[in-house]
Design brief:
Blueprint: H1 3-31, H2 34-41, H3 45-54, H4 57-93, H5 98-131, H6 133-150, H7 152-168, H8 182-191, H9 197-210, H10 214-217, E1 219-220, E2 227-228, H11 233-242, E3 247-251, E4 258-263, E5 284-287, H12 292-302, E6 306-310, E7 316-321, H13 322-330, E8 348-349, H14 356-363, H15 375-383, E9 392-394, E10 409-419, H16 449-452, E11 461-465, E12 507-518
Parallel strand pairs: 2-3, 5-6, 11-12
Antiparallel strand pairs: 1-7, 3-4, 6-7, 8-11, 9-10, 10-12
Helix pairs in contact: 1-4, 1-5, 1-6, 2-3, 3-6, 4-5, 4-6, 4-7, 5-6, 8-9, 12-13
């Protein structure tokens, strides 16, 4: 092999590598995310130049294609024309006819150059560029910018021709790419290897919170403890003693006439005979359609950590606190005043007010979608009336094919306890805190009375996993009365019902709950 043949081989290899540089440059610039472009701009003039090139895809793509095409053309054409005459005599020497040797040599060299172009000119540089997009872009971006300037007339012609063809097919020549959808972003978060389970869970909760309204996370009106405007400080202190929370809405004529709220810290050092109006604070009113995240930002900026949620008619729907909203993002906030509830046997117990999504997560029993948001809502929807002791609601959707449709369901039982209103906030002793639990309510066997966010003598939903011999649904007596949900009618009591939000004291009552048993 003479020196001229070696030179020809070197030139072919050079053309292949030049094409590879252009191919890698294309992938590096296309792969840069917006955050990476912003970071490059802050790294100096070279980074800013690279970011400028990357933000003009029509220009750099045209320049790259010119480079790739020219390099590929020269490698194939030059290699075939200069190396084929050197290969043909070798083929003749192994027995090929002279007429066929030239053709076979040309085909073999073309295939060899194509192989080198695919490996060294496409796959290797593109893979490296994908792995180190920012670093590669910093190296090759400025030379590409100068090359694009040098071939500007050709780039202009190619760009105009491309834009015209794109318009013919109904595309937008100025569009740079599709926006990432919420589903794609959620998938990226879920599959990101750099996040641990806790970080991933928080990010997923943030995405979920973006779709939630205040109506989904508020404490309902019937679960709120309010104090009347005409009450004295001593009256409020008695309420605080019964319900150790830190913020209580104050109402006028009724629960729709909320005048403000009182903080237990303001009661210290005040005459017991003073009216509660002397320590009244302003309270915000927010529509139930407001979204969680904007409301969280607003409450952080404005100061008061409690707001009244109103319906479209201006009536009181419930309350929401800063803690309710924060818990939508980070989960339950536990402090020294939160005590786990006793759990009978090995039951996994959750509140009937649990959302159907969290109900399925906790119990493994997916409830079908419908015009309800909670497990209790599912029971009422299926019954079409208030639940009574012994009512059974099947959940056939969770059964395997061919199974008995009576195997999974909800049966209503009876519970007794003291019923009281839901206080607006937690822990007078501990100082100000947000109230409530967020839209998820109680969280399984470790749930606490504050988690349920609810009135203490109302119904309870238990989810119990039975063994293979367990069948049917029943409600055991004597279950904890700290988790409640509105399922059935109230038994007669000696005092007036305490279901109004204006209630300041509890009354004895017996109400029904429900238990989910499944195989």
């Amino acid at each position: 092999m003479d020196s001229q043949t070696l030179l020809n081989l070197a030139l072919v290899l050079l053309f292949v590598l030049v094409g590879g540089v252009f191919a890698g440059t294309e992938i590096a610039l296309v792969s840069l995310r917006e955050g990476q472009l912003d970071a490059l701009e802050r790294r100096g003039s070279r980074g800013a130049r690279v970011a400028k090139v990357a933000r003009d895809p029509n220009r750099f793509l045209a320049a790259v294609q010119i480079g790739v095409t020219v390099a590929g053309f020269f490698s194939a054409a030059y290699g075939a024309s200069t190396l084929a005459p050197d290969l043909a005599p070798l083929l003749t020497g192994i027995g090929l006819p002279d007429a066929a040797a030239d053709t076979v040599a040309l085909v073999l060299l073309t295939l060899l150059i194509a192989y080198l172009s695919l490996v060294l000119g496409e796959l290797v540089p593109k893979r490296i560029a994908l792995q180190r997009a920012a670093g590669v872009a910093l190296v090759v971006g400025p030379p590409l910018d100068r090359f694009a300037t040098a071939v500007r007339p050709v780039v202009w012609l190619l760009s105009r021709s491309t834009n015209a063809v794109v318009r013919v097919f109904g595309g937008d020549p100025e569009a740079t790419g599709e926006e990432m959808t919420d589903a794609e972003l959620r998938y990226l978060v879920a599959e990101h290897e750099g996040l641990d389970d806790g970080e991933r869970r928080i990010l997923v909760d943030v995405f979920d919170a973006a779709d939630r309204s205040l109506r989904e996370v508020m404490q309902p009106r019937g679960d709120v403890v309010m104090v009347p405007l005409g009450a004295s400080v001593s009256d409020v202190l008695r309420t605080v003693a019964e319900h150790p929370w830190s913020r209580y809405p104050v109402h006028g004529e009724n629960a729709d006439d909320v005048r403000g709220f009182v903080h237990v810290r303001d009661l210290l050092g005040v005459s017991p005979d003073a009216p509660v109006s002397d320590v009244l604070r302003e309270i915000a009113f927010l529509p139930g359609t407001n979204r969680v995240l904007p409301t969280l930002t607003r409450m952080r900026q404005t100061g008061p950590h409690i707001a009244v949620v109103v319906d479209e008619y201006g009536g009181t729907d419930g309350i929401v606190t800063l803690e309710d909203l924060v818990e939508e993002l980070v989960g339950e906030i536990v402090d020294e005043h939160d005590h786990p509830l006793p759990v009978p046997g090995t039951s996994d117990e959750v509140e009937a007010g649990l959302s159907i999504e969290d109900f399925a997560t906790r119990t493994g029993v997916p409830l079908p979608d419908g015009p309800y948001e909670t497990a209790a809502g599912y029971v009422l929807h299926r019954l079409g009336r208030l639940a009574e002791v012994g009512d059974r609601v099947p959940v056939p959707e969770v059964l395997p094919e061919g199974a008995d449709t009576d195997g999974v369901g909800v049966q209503v039982g009876e519970l007794a306890g003291e019923r009281g209103g839901r206080p607006a906030d937690h822990s007078a002793a501990a100082g100000p805190r947000g109230a409530g639990t967020g839209g998820r309510r109680a969280r399984g066997a470790g749930a606490r009375s504050r988690d349920t966010g609810v009135r203490l003598a109302r119904h309870q939903q238990h989810v119990r996993r039975q063994g293979v011999d367990g069948r049917g649904l029943r409600t055991p007596a004597g279950l904890s009365d700290d988790l409640r949900a509105p399922l059935g009618p109230q038994a007669p009591t000696a005092t007036a019902p305490a279901h109004r939000a204006a209630s300041t004291s509890g009354t004895a009552s017996t109400r029904s709950g429900c238990v989910v048993h499944h195989r």
